[in-house]
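FAQ

Q: What does a record look like?
A: Structure on top, sequence underneath. For example:
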């Protein structure tokens, strides 16, 4: 696995719902003062996908994600 774009941003989630994951990563990016344009880019990229596995992968490309189900 490659290093995420923002490895210092940690996201832990107890849901496998892809929309909940995208929301959690967006919130973490905002809390870390990431530029709004970058957050929009992440959101568009993640929500463009239909496959939940691919949405998780995109989230992991942007932040350190841990899903505890």
């Amino acid at each position: 696995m490659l290093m995420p774009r923002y490895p210092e941003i940690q996201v832990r989630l107890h849901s496998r719902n892809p929309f909940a994951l995208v929301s959690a990563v967006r919130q973490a990016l905002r809390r870390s003062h990431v530029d709004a344009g970058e957050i929009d880019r992440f959101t568009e990229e993640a929500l463009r996908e239909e496959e939940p596995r691919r949405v998780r992968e995109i989230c992991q490309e942007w932040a350190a994600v841990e899903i505890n189900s």
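Q: Is there anything notable about this one?
A: The CA atoms of residues 9 and 31 lie 9 Å apart.
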